[in-house]
Structure formats: structure tokens, C-alpha cells
Amino acid sequence: MNPSTPSPSPTLRIGVGVIGLAYLVLGIAGFAVAGSDMGYDPSRTVWVFGVSGLLNIGHTAVGALGLAATHNEGNLRAFGWLSFFAFTGLSAYSILAVTVSPLGNLANVHVANACLYGVTAVLGLLATVVPTRGGTATGHAT
């Protein structure tokens, strides 16, 4: 790492690591429970979260990206933006799928999924705007 580049705060690294680990565990557990099944089925859950083949792939990928992003500040910020935009969209889809009709709920999301995705979107945004130890959120000292 370049000495003039501020390092990310340990709290930010730990936070993104915990998000990554949680999604990785959820994705792997989802594969164990549901495999690659698709479509609405209220019995396919891991704890309170609905799982399906599509969600399992997404959760595992987000988990791996989150853990990989903890190595430097640029990756942490990129993961934050990716999480913010992706999970904002997933939150909107989840809310519609849960409230409108189970026929359109091909990913088998539940209310808990919608809440998890909303919280993850907010945490992703926070990961992009939290300042570093030596400068601003963009990493440039003022």
C-alpha cells in the first residue's frame, strides 16, 4: 500500500467482512437446504430468510466479494457502491414480490429478505461515505 494513501478504518474493514461472512454463510446454507430450486415455496428457508437457487448464487457471490473487499480501501468503497445499488434494487423487488402476489416471486423472497436487503443497502452506502483515518471518504487528504 502506498504510504501516502490513507488506510481504511479497522471498523470499516470489520463491518464489510461481517457482511461478507453473513452472506457467504447464508448462500452456502441455502444451497444445503434448497439446492437450485426456483419459485415460491414458503418452506424453503434458512432461519427466516427465503432461499432459492438464484438467491443462493447471489448471496454466495456477495459474500465472497465482501470478504475479498476487505484488503484495501478502493475495494471497500467499490463494494459499498455495488452493495448500495444492487441491494436497493433487490429491496424494491422483494417488497413488490412479497406484497403483490406469490406468482411473481420466482426468487422466493420473504419479508425478512426485504429487510436484510434494505439494511445491506444502507450499510453499503455508509461504507462509501465513512471517512478514512487520514482524509475524506474519497481517500484524498484536504
Would you kindly provide a written description of the structure presented here, covering whatever features stand out?
The chain is mainly α and 142 residues long. It has one domain (10-129). The protein has four helices and two strands. Strands 1-2 form a two-stranded antiparallel ribbon. Helix 3 (73-99) runs antiparallel to helix 4 (111-129).
At a glance:
The protein is mainly α and 142 residues long.
The helix tally amounts to 4
How many structural domains can be distinguished in the coordinates? Answer: 1
Mean pLDDT, to the nearest integer, reads: 89
Number of strands: 2
User: What can be said about the biggest beta sheet?
Assistant: 2 strands, antiparallel
Q: Could you give the order of strands across the largest sheet? A: 1-2
Main structural class:
mainly alpha
Q: From N to C, what is the helix and strand string? A: HEEHHH
Strand content bin: under 5%
Provide the low-confidence segments as ranges. Answer: none
Assign an overall shape.
elongated
Radius of gyration: 17 Å
Helix content: 55-70%
Distance between the termini: 20 Å
Features:
single chain; two-stranded antiparallel ribbon; elongated; 4 helices; mainly alpha; 142 residues; 3% strand
Helices and strands in order, then pairings?
Blueprint: H1 10-34, E1 45-46, E2 49-50, H2 53-68, H3 73-99, H4 111-129
Antiparallel strand pairs: 1-2
Helix pairs in contact: 1-2, 2-3, 3-4
